[in-house]
Amino acid sequence: xxxxxxxxxxxxxxxxxxxxxxxxxxxxxxxxxxxxxxxxxxxxxxxxxxxxxxxxxxxxxxxxxxxxxxxxxxxxxxxxxxxxxxxxxxxxxxxxxxxxxxxxxxxxxxxxxxxxxxxxxxxxxxxxxxxxxxxxxxxxxxxxxxxxxxxxxxxxxxxxxxxxxxxxxxxxxxxxxxxxxxxxxxxxxxxxxxxxxxxxxxxxxxxxxxxxxxxxxxxxxxxxxxxxxxxxxxxxxxxxxxxxxxxxxxxxxxxxxxxxxxxxxxxxxxxxxxxxxxxxxxxxxxxxxxxxxxxxxxxxxxxxxxxxxxxxxxxxxxxxxxxxxxxxxxxxxxxxxxxxxxxxxxxxxxxxxxxxxxxxxxxxxxxxxxxxxxxxxxxxxxxxxxxxxxxxxxxxxxxxxxxxxxxxxxxxxxxxxxxxxxxxxxxxxxxxxxxxxxxxxxxxxxxxxxxxxxxxxxxxxxxxxxxxxxxxxxxxxxxxxxxxxxxxxxxxxxxxxxxxxxxxxxxxxxxxxxxxxxxxxxxxxxxxxxxxxxxxxxx
Length: 539
Description:
Layout: H1 4-16, H2 20-26, H3 29-40, H4 44-56, H5 63-75, H6 79-91, H7 98-110, H8 114-127, H9 134-146, H10 150-162, H11 169-181, H12 185-197, H13 204-216, H14 220-233, H15 239-251, H16 255-267, H17 274-286, H18 290-302, H19 309-321, H20 325-337, H21 344-356, H22 360-372, H23 379-391, H24 395-403, H25 414-426, H26 430-442, H27 449-461, H28 465-477, H29 487-494, H30 501-517, H31 522-536
């Protein structure tokens, strides 16, 4: 047990009794302990104060004292001060040891200052009296691989081997993780072969990395083979390994296979956790097998586990996905009863489900609940409700909500603008849509391809062909495509004589993809072919 506060309290009692001065003359170790306690309590400032006090008492600090203070500065995230302090003690003639260098290098790597850490490695090598060991090299290799600087990690790896430092399983784990992230499977195989030649056995973490990356690449059969290899070699897969494989199957819609892995996990003596069941619930939900998802959810309690926030959100998302948002809403009270704090992700899932199913009154009630909960609704949450109101024909209510965003400290982004413009267009309120469209750039946003297509579709659906042609020209000049617009509207526009030849050619290219993909209906295809022939016919 690390009772740092109790240790400091005891040392202070010694000081009050007048014992500390005798201790400092006979046992410097006691003050190093006190400084270490302060550092672990994130009060390195007290550690420096104590250093000043004991130096006045005649205590000569050693490298252990300085290393402890450097570690305290690193814990507090004061790396610049740690480096400066390191330089100061070197100037005063103190020789840093392996732990001093290792502490500073580790601290620098944790904040992403790997290049500076490498300079300290080179300093160690040049000094000669302090040779870097496997821990220092591994610290750098791990950090470089996390930063996706795998080539630099291999350079450190090569230097390490040249200096006679033998790589261990931690070294290979980091390198394999790095090359897996880059999809370099040949390099993975080479490293595994090299491990075998050096008699370094892959551990559960390496196997789990391989399973994870294979699943993400869609190579689920190969991932299953890795699991089989683990069992053959006597390396016991952990819950992370099994969960990763389960998730891989669910990503491919193979929920039954994921369930088989869950059973295998239990048969191998590895207890499934809440994440295991959440993965399965997610798989059932995405496959719209909601009753099985509910059954799996109830099974969590039977196993003596407690669903977490992710589990509830996944299940509620599944219920919303099959048009049962009111059933999902019931779980809000259950979450609160279990002491779970509901965040914006969960609320967003519910709000989207309610709006999508046209339960607008319930959506508005939920939104009020969110505001009363103390959570600050973000602009995307407002966008969900604005979209729901527009689709329910309550455009004026949506407009009121939209105009009230600045008063709530929120600025509409391009998604909110596009949603509101779409709402106006659907109601035939083109004047308001056009005015809002013009304000986008004035308010610091930039229209995207979807925004232009929504406006273009609004013009076409409301027989504003001249304005549609004008906007289409702006889109073409800006490098935007009309591919998101309804195909029948574009086919009709293609046949309009007012459209000049260059714009017709642009539209033809857009619709040509749809024609080749077979996404045009017979009538649209026929009109497209007629228009194409008229364009290609020489004038």
